[in-house]
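Sanity check

After download, print the first record. It should look like this:
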Amino acid sequence: MCLLSLGFVSCNNEDEIDTSHSIFGSDGTEAEEPNEFDKWLLENYVYTYNIQVKYRLDDNETDVEYDLVPADYEKAFALAKIVKFVWMEAYDEVWGIETTRTYVPKLIQMIGNVAYTESGMILGQAEQGMKVTLFKINDLDLNNLDVNTLNEYYFKTMHHEFTHILNQRKPYDTNYDRITESSYVGSDWYQIYDDQALQMGFISPYAMDRGSEDFAEMLSIFVTNSADTWESFLETAEPDPNSPYYNPDVNGRAILEQKFDIVYKYMKDSWGVDLYELRDVVQRRQGEINTLFN
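Expected structure tokens:
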């Protein structure tokens, strides 16, 4: 039986099947012949960065615990172009393509939907510095490539997961974790409101999971937002007696600035990257995304 959008119909075994755009090949994992996207990936990912991209659903690369669906062909193709332009090529500009090629993950897996856990949905995963999984590909709106939406679901995730990879190669100063050591809440982070987290000295609720997530959130949110937006976060974090989250003993802005100093120093000293320069590059490229499809 073949499942189509209009219902179930029988398939004649003698009919020719176009596998070039199939999310499954004849063996259920890979297409029989390379399609346009496969050829583009070969030139732009494999030859350029030594990265393999899997957009067809592969049971060997996914967790059967989650109810996952394949990535849409056109949307996966579009996102691959965006990822290269906004993420990898941004790093190319600030530290050179050879360094990017050395440290980028060797496998990117694209999944159509999100994976859910008790604490919420998973938008990305990094595994031992070798693999990054991006979820929610099928929610990409090709007719409205809104930067804020792309940031929320993809850009921040890419920079967040890459930060984990860099941290695995060169650990950050453990003093970072001690700044708000008693305030991490683990998997209960989803119960925290945005403003509440900021006023406690965390750039996002997810940053309250643990120190490593806090660090990655700081970097990814900094580079994917404008200077004005970052300043607005810091202003919200300032002690406000009229806020329901007000604590006279906590200055969220001061804590965030202390944390950022460590993040900045880590990237500068360990990787030779000026985060202000990286942010400028990322912001410029985010504003140029539509040129990829004109």
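If your output differs, re-run the checksum step. Summary of this record's structure: The mean pLDDT is 85.
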